[in-house]
Design goal:
homotetramer, 338 residues, alpha/beta, TIM Barrel, 2 domains, aldehyde-lyase activity (chains A, B, C, D)
Chain lengths: 338, 338, 338, 338
Amino acid sequence: MIVVLKRNSDKEHVEKLMQHFTDMGLRINYSQGADTLILGLMGDTTRLDEGDIMAYDVVERVQRVTEPFKAVNRKFHPEDTIIEVAGRKIGAGYFNVMAGPCSVENEAQIVECAERVKAAGASFLRGGAFKPRTSPYSFQGLEAEGLKLLLEAKRQTGLPIVTEIMSEKHLDLFADVDIIQLGARNMQNFMLLKELGRSNKPILLKRGLSATMEEFLMAAEYIFAGGNTNVILCERGIRTFEKLIRNNLDISAVPLVKMFSHLPIIIDPSHAAGRRDMVQPLSRAAIAAGADGLIIEAHNDPAHALCDGAQSLDLNQFDTVMKDIKRRAEFEGRVMMP
Amino acid sequence: MIVVLKRNSDKEHVEKLMQHFTDMGLRINYSQGADTLILGLMGDTTRLDEGDIMAYDVVERVQRVTEPFKAVNRKFHPEDTIIEVAGRKIGAGYFNVMAGPCSVENEAQIVECAERVKAAGASFLRGGAFKPRTSPYSFQGLEAEGLKLLLEAKRQTGLPIVTEIMSEKHLDLFADVDIIQLGARNMQNFMLLKELGRSNKPILLKRGLSATMEEFLMAAEYIFAGGNTNVILCERGIRTFEKLIRNNLDISAVPLVKMFSHLPIIIDPSHAAGRRDMVQPLSRAAIAAGADGLIIEAHNDPAHALCDGAQSLDLNQFDTVMKDIKRRAEFEGRVMMP
Amino acid sequence: MIVVLKRNSDKEHVEKLMQHFTDMGLRINYSQGADTLILGLMGDTTRLDEGDIMAYDVVERVQRVTEPFKAVNRKFHPEDTIIEVAGRKIGAGYFNVMAGPCSVENEAQIVECAERVKAAGASFLRGGAFKPRTSPYSFQGLEAEGLKLLLEAKRQTGLPIVTEIMSEKHLDLFADVDIIQLGARNMQNFMLLKELGRSNKPILLKRGLSATMEEFLMAAEYIFAGGNTNVILCERGIRTFEKLIRNNLDISAVPLVKMFSHLPIIIDPSHAAGRRDMVQPLSRAAIAAGADGLIIEAHNDPAHALCDGAQSLDLNQFDTVMKDIKRRAEFEGRVMMP
Amino acid sequence: MIVVLKRNSDKEHVEKLMQHFTDMGLRINYSQGADTLILGLMGDTTRLDEGDIMAYDVVERVQRVTEPFKAVNRKFHPEDTIIEVAGRKIGAGYFNVMAGPCSVENEAQIVECAERVKAAGASFLRGGAFKPRTSPYSFQGLEAEGLKLLLEAKRQTGLPIVTEIMSEKHLDLFADVDIIQLGARNMQNFMLLKELGRSNKPILLKRGLSATMEEFLMAAEYIFAGGNTNVILCERGIRTFEKLIRNNLDISAVPLVKMFSHLPIIIDPSHAAGRRDMVQPLSRAAIAAGADGLIIEAHNDPAHALCDGAQSLDLNQFDTVMKDIKRRAEFEGRVMMP
């Protein structure tokens, strides 16, 4: 951490500030220029907050030199992390496709989707039981009943399931879920992050719509801080000014996660654009950029889906897209999980 | 809702879509142009979701004509709403200043802050017990103990309190809190919104960092949908590309809320910039634009605050700012709540 | 400028880099921590470019400590600059309202607008002769003929004029224009900035839609670098995610310009929202925040304006708004220019 | 174009508005709902401006149904456009790599770069003679001398050249340049767009930092409107909130251009991130998403480049990246131009 002091700062106040840092166990490098005094803080600066230091009147600027995240930082864990779930490996070259409908609607629907996406080559079944909706008047999901139907689909097909949690109160309901998804709007729901940190479940952490990579990795750090190291990151489109699509895939998230963290990252090309004709080109970009997997919406009847139909592939379209995905994963030397 | 169909759409599919709308109790106006067919949907369209309609292959575009929010919409409730809390009125010309430290730290601190902001003219004491922090390694607040200290400060000074809730599980702890704040990062924590909707507490709903006005008002609609109509909106800065400030006050939020909703809106000039030298000019702009109040961070010793010191005024600075605020509220013809 | 080096950097490469800085006449403060080496560069760092330094493989991060702008920086020119044009003062408490139609359309129209805005209290006539339009099929302005009509309106009313330049080739046409406006889309048209820097005309420099304050002030620095110090800054709304308005007034620009620069700043509440019902509340906020003036669209017949009618006040509405503006400028202790 | 009228609008005013549209040669579909009246305008609506229509007091909302661009619209030109320059084809499966230094610095440098990028497989030499720089104190390019050196490099190597124009006044200087680049900051420099529209040179049009796809395509439409149909689009990163990279590649631009336009689109992975370690992963994503080419910064000595060194590959790194690009272009079935 670098602290730039204001010109002509009162000596006594500067000493007070330096004492504060020393008290925190930090070492200080002191640089006196013609009109600028700079303090370089060495040691564990992750506990420091820029805003707190700025509160000292003598401080003009504060700049982090090292990342504020530790446990998820590649610097301290150079090897790729592999998450193992239900016999599938995720990360480090192991490539997974998670697919299924936006919402679970009934047994026939979810089982048909599960069978078809499995046959096409997906390794996980996704489906929403609890649905975050912008409007209180929209369909909110089948909730607990939806979880039961997902588990039934798992029983019938053997596909492990990934589904979203929306409340700390529901954790018990997710006991048999294979991967718990934390949605984009809850990326900084810190209480839920802490609760998930205390569980041992694999977590699919979706990036917030306007979150920076640092904030995204700090959310993962929250889960690690609670003791749970099974975190899969998911980029699902950020908010930009573009009007032709609902969100906008941040493809740079893939190489940036690979540089700064050891965690696997998968891409959601369905939410990333909000239109099904973008799923294939964005999936291709994601694989080429180095993503560890994809999570794709596929529905037996998108026009009658109870939500997000615009971005869902029908099951035949999904078959076609999967063939293309497999060919590309092979080209990249990834191992497709069955 | 307007639905633009693709050129040369299959007749049968169009009829299927029209049947779907008729089944939902909507009336359809049908416009056939040279190469475009447009459906105008009349009736209660708040249950419709653009994405769901886009799922029909014959649909090219969907455009809302009326706002998706009803209960908070000024069209259906033309008079300004006044929220009454602890003898104070908020909205419709009644102006409130809520002030206090970012975090409750100990009894002496919170009581001193309460006494001083009350003396200066604040009508509510603010203070954080549960603190949303980007890093798990930062101070997370005194939690339940912090709430007790706030209530003690209220007992000693008579100032009603406003403080942030971060979990559905904590609602009981907030039984004696006067206004429950829902933070920006939880603006779309739909489960918590629903829970607060079922309570009868006044809610201070902070706008998310990248939320549109429609999303902001839809979050308020969630609380209304549960039966709780005591909602105070709070604009606290949005994320822009500006680097000199942490967030950026969206001053347009004030007149837009006044046009589209009947709810009161207050401004948080402390978080809106993240630097204390911006609090006064932004407060002035907020009052002039028509805000119903301000929520300001004031701390007895900002340099040693346990969080967000950079944006906190010290108590003498707060005195000065309050004198200016009073003079301006009077100029605008507002009634300052004591 | 602070340069953070990578861990375990090759000594020889570090020395090469340090030699490079020394060759540029900079002094270096050298801080060696446990695992980080930091160089603090002292001297005139405005010629340094972060990207160039990052090119050295040993460099991990570069951070400016001082602003890259000098001539427009308040640090080196603490007093407010006052621009004098046609007998009007702008800045340092002297408040100006510039008003008129989006486009000059014909003599009767521009003269009527000029007479009426003058009578209402405007000190400058604004009007577009060259119009930047998103579409090549939209009305592009009367061009040279429009400039003649503006000058005719000036002759008849005595109001000095402000109008936009779009090409270096047109500078001669602007010889009798009082203030030359550089539009938002040309804020980083560096050739035009240089050309205007070589003239001695007062320049109204509009901020780009997504420009940071630093970029905005650097554009002003370009004009200063050419020798022209008559620059008036203008904030006219930035691009945000909000859909209810076309642009979004960045009210923070006013206090930030006042802190970091000595130049006057005026606000354009018409473009800042793109809807006329926002002009009055935004004007109020601008005055309260400390703006040095306003530039407002007023048209004799907005519904038949050849562009931007949605944001134009009609002349009666302008009268009403001006009365409110005068009362507020007086409250703030500003001197209204007639 | 759809025009939604306000409730209870005055009949006479509505008729006036309808007359206005009829006078413009448009046909009107009229839909009367319970409380909403909607006008559907049919015919050539590209000359209509939303703001102008909004100026009518009876209008509540305006929504385009068809794109405002015609000449560049795929609807009216379904086949991919192929641009032919100096014996190279661009678009429709023909893949080009343009490479070279940020700035031309001297003959030895530019010739070495040209020879090496040609040997590696680039089909065009890029290099800046006129440089848009944020600071007036940064190196501004060798200007006319730089153009001469580029032409000399072309003479010695046979590589056609692409370089940026910054002023209408310079067009004559670019007579022998093969492709004229229009930079991101000038994307809406409408006078320069018109001037380039009157020339017959191939134009590489770079997308503005915050431009929407519609604005980007409208800029191309300006060039077409002048008669020049040789336009190559270039996505070079947009501004987002991410701090780890300077700009952020909008990968969706590739499939969106392919859907909405017939023009070729190439990607600039160097500017898109501003760091050289991102060039390879972003190039891979671009090829997979369907881009028609890449423009890459490669310099013989990035650490001593006079600008943008941080994002330049050295010539050996470029060799490596090119091998990877060729393998991937082949996998996609593209034809690499030599």
